[in-house]
Amino acid sequence: MLVKLLRSQVKRLVENNIILKLIAKLKIPPNAFSFIAIILAIPGAYFLSQGNILASLPFTGLALAWDAIDGAYARTAGKTSQFGAYIEGIFDVYVEVIIFLGLIAWNYSFEASLAMMLSLILSYAKPRVSQIVNIKDVDWPGIGGKFDRRLIFFLSLIIAYFLPSFNAIGKSFDTLSILLYLLAFIVFIGGIQRMYFAKKIIEKGNL
Question: Which DSSP state fits 18?
Answer without folding.
Answer: H
